[in-house]
Amino acid sequence: MPFRSLLKWGLALAFLGFLLWVIALANRGEVAQWFGIVRTLPYGDKWGHIGLYGLLTLLFNWALGWRALSIGAWAQWGTILVALFAVAEEMTQAWNPNRTLDIWDLAADAVGLVLATGLSLYLARLSGPARGSAQH
Question: Which residues are in coiled coils (predicted)?
Answer without folding.
Answer: none
